[in-house]
Amino acid sequence: MKKFLLNFCYDGTDFHGWQIQEEYITIQSVMEKCLTKIFKIETSLVASGRTDSGVHAYNQYAHFSARTRMLPENIIKALNSLLPNSIYIKDCKKVDSDFHARFSAKSRTYLYKINKTFNPFERNYSAYFPKKKIKSEKIRKALPYLIGTYDFEVFASDTSHLNNCLCTIISAKWEEYQNQYHFFITANRFLHNMVRRIIGTLLKISQYDLPDNYIQEILEKQDYKMLGETAPPQGLYLYEIEY
User: Among 47, 88, 236, 237, which one is least packed by beta carbons within 10 Å?
Assistant: First the structure.
């Protein structure tokens, strides 16, 4: 039995997220069907993390095990010949038996895209907030209060299955371009909806000129009512995983 690690990207528009769900088409279900067809036996994938409906990935990783003589480059070709055009395998390599796509990850980086003006061609790939006053300098002043290890339970939508909600934010960066804003955030782990709620709260800070340390206050008080609106999924991308 050999263990392989896949690196792939996907357009999440037409999928109900990563994880297999009954009655819904998900990225995991589509990819596992292709693997099962290739290896003639049910083959499961374990990803670095889940993404929600409408969320995209520049670099997602997942491992699987198979009894095969196929070379990694041939597995790439076989998968890409079967997968829809919305999913593309970028790389495949053999890994040690104790490797785990989720638990071996050192950090994860997400990107969130916001359009300055509405663009119908970008509506599935970026967010647009026509009623928000987005002030880059104001948002940048709030970012240092995200950095460090904190209990992010207030920013999560479901924590019932977790032992704790401690996350270490390594870096957070806000970039402004001619037509878009890009927000990059890197952490050792992320909770469900955490990035989208952070985005919504940063926009709230900008809109109402709240104190620079507003996020620090939220983390100390764990007051859900202080959060901004959860940002929509289509602007979110799993950007990179570091192993």
Answer: 88
